[in-house]
Specification:
The protein has about 450 residues and is an alpha+beta fold. The chain has 14 helices and 23 strands. It is globular and about 75 Å long. Bound molecules: glycyl-adenosine-5'-phosphate. The site of glycyl-adenosine-5'-phosphate (GAP) has 19 residues, from strand 10, strand 13, strand 16 and helix 10.
């Protein structure tokens, strides 16, 4: 059993194998032995990841005071000098001279306790040296010092350097925010724990620009907003908490910072960072670019460099939190009185990769033909009316109906729609609910709105 108390997943490997078997996440370049800490999202995973991004994007950009941005991954190298990444974005790296293992000194417990190699226990170690986490490449045909560019280690800087472009093009007044989703890259010394810490990952970041003096209130407001987001998408409250950073733990740019932590199977760990970055970044870019990034407040006729409240969450890490939170094993009695374990991903329907599965009870032509028509109605909606809904839907005709229900439970599909021998006579299908296993008989012409309603009513 991989569930601990209160049905909490305690073993990440259970998810890793489910994710591979069902097409959520595969090891990158697997047929070549895999590339360390890089992962590919499969048919279900790519759909679910898209849903995670859409949930975040909508929560941000449907507010009247937040706009979107999609900045390039490659930026002028001076950006990273100004931001402090060239000189300061590094971790202390230690080499074991015996087994050649390399590890990060600041979070390796055995090293901190006894200065021993966590791999072989040897004390023959190098002194810690700072290792910059940015990936470098070259732009253009000449590979020299002058052509170095970096793969961005955070999406935030694309927002800072576009602050004036976004503000003047949208005529937004402060306070307002800029939201962005995109790939970031960090040459982590110790990546691991599946998609929790990787070298290529996606971030969802929002920078909220405020008048200095109003920053502390905005910081508190965003803490609440972000926690409400997680509640809205069904993460269990007992698995979420705030963890403030003490004065000694603050990043070089931060005036205040708090992590939203999630109780992963590896323990409480950062899911999202919420930071009061003061005017650090805009001031640095003013200094290095020579361009003004000041805001002119027309009402009070004053100029100032805005403070920034940042919310920053990893898309992959949130994807993992959703999977961990949703995974459950239920003990059901089988027909012979034995034990039968039902694996369910109780994902919020907006996050679940598929909303419905259409299952003909048998492979008879008449059932298959009707089932295909129903699949199409669900996939495309009916008569172009948005109110009747269109959904990510799948079709499955192989194996017993019980087995097919279980397949859908395991990937979190909220509804199964069964076409049976009665369907031709009464124009109805059976809709089976993932969480309760309850079944309803629903008229085909009501099916889309029934499912839409069911998705909306999900709590
Ligand atoms: N702009 C601020 C910033 O990037 P961060 O705390 O370094 O702050 C924000 O990163 C979030 O990005 C983290 O809370 C985490 O969810 C995600 N993240 C950071 N490094 C990651 C990695 N190596 N793999 C996966 N996700 C990562």
């Amino acid at each position: 059993m991989t569930n601990g108390p209160s049905n909490r997943l305690t073993d990440l490997n259970t998810l890793v194998s489910l994710a591979k078997r069902r097409g959520f996440v595969f090891q990158s370049s697997e047929i070549y032995g895999g590339l360390s800490s890089c992962w590919d999202y499969g048919p279900l995973g790519s759909q679910m990841k898209f849903n995670v991004k859409m949930a975040w994007w909508k929560a941000m950009t449907r507010r009247p005071d937040v706009v979107g941005l999609d900045a390039a991954i490659l930026m002028a190298p001076m950006v990273w000098k100004a931001s402090g990444h060239v000189d300061g974005f590094s971790d202390p790296l230690v080499d074991c001279k015996e087994c050649k293992h390399r590890f990060r000194a600041d979070n390796t417990e055995s090293y901190l306790k006894s200065r021993q190699c966590p791999n072989c226990g040897s004390k023959n170690l190098s002194e810690p040296r700072q290792f910059n986490l940015m990936f470098k490449t070259h732009m253009g045909p000449v590979e020299d010092q002058g052509s170095i560019v970096y793969l961005r280690p955070e999406t935030a800087q694309g927002i800072f350097v576009n602050f004036i472009n976004c503000q003047t093009s949208t005529r937004h007044k402060i306070p307002f925010g800029i939201a962005q989703i995109g790939k970031s890259f960090r040459n982590e010394i110790t990546p691991g724990n599946f998609i929790f810490r990787t070298r290529e990952f996606e971030q969802m970041e929002m920078q909220y620009f405020v008048k200095p003096g109003t920053d502390e209130k905005a910081f508190e407001d965003w803490k609440e907003t972000r926690m409400n987001f997680y509640k809205r998408f069904g993460l269990r409250l007992e698995n979420l908490r705030f963890q403030p950073h003490g004065p000694g733990e603050l990043a070089h740019y931060a005036k205040a910072a708090v992590d939203v932590q999630y109780n992963f199977p590896i323990g409480w760990s950062e899911l999202e960072g919420i930071h009061n970055r003061s005017d650090f970044d805009l001031s640095q870019h003013m200094k290095f670019s020579g361009k003004s990034l000041e805001y002119f407040d027309e009402v009070n006729k004053e100029k100032f460099v805005p403070f920034v409240i940042e919310t920053a969450v990893g898309c992959d890490r949130l994807f993992l939190a959703f999977l961990c939170d949703a995974y459950r094993e239920e003990n059901l009695a089988d027909e012979k009185g034995g034990e039968d374990v039902r694996v369910v991903l109780g994902l919020h329907p907006e996050i679940a990769p598929l909303k419905a599965a259409v299952l003909p009870l048998s492979k008879k032509d008449e059932l298959i033909g009707t089932a295909e028509k129903i699949r199409l109605r669900l996939a495309e909606g009916v008569g172009g009316e948005a109110a009747t809904g269109d959904f990510d839907v799948t079709y499955d005709e192989s194996a017993s109906i019980g087995k097919r229900y279980r397949r859908q439970d395991e990937i979190g599909t909220p509804f199964c729609v069964t076409v049976d021998f009665q369907t031709a006579a009464d124009q109805k299908v059976t809709v089976r609910h993932r969480d309760t296993m309850k079944q309803d008989r629903v008229a085909i012409d009501q099916l889309n709105s029934f499912i839409l309603q069911g998705l909306r009513n999900f709590t």
